[in-house]
Amino acid sequence: MVTPVRVVIGICLVAPFVAMLWVGSYAKTDPAFIGIPFFYWYQMAWVLVSTALTMIAYKLWQRDQRARRAPQGGAAK
């Protein structure tokens, strides 16, 4: 079943792939950051962003699963 929470989870998981596969958006050297060309620091920034998005997706999934189990557990007692 598609719910708004699951759509957000999907977006969180797909966004890093889209960002890394769209090479034309970051295949350049400027602007440099602390002497590091844009091409490299952009990819490294996405490592951190991907970690955060994956964590958010996981927490949302856990909350969604608990919410789905709660009515079933209450009815069984």
TrEMBL record:
This protein's UniProt keywords: Membrane, Transmembrane, Transmembrane helix
TM segment ranges: 7-27, 39-61
InterPro entries: DUF3311
PANTHER family membership: BSL5891 PROTEIN
Name of protein: DUF3311 domain-containing protein
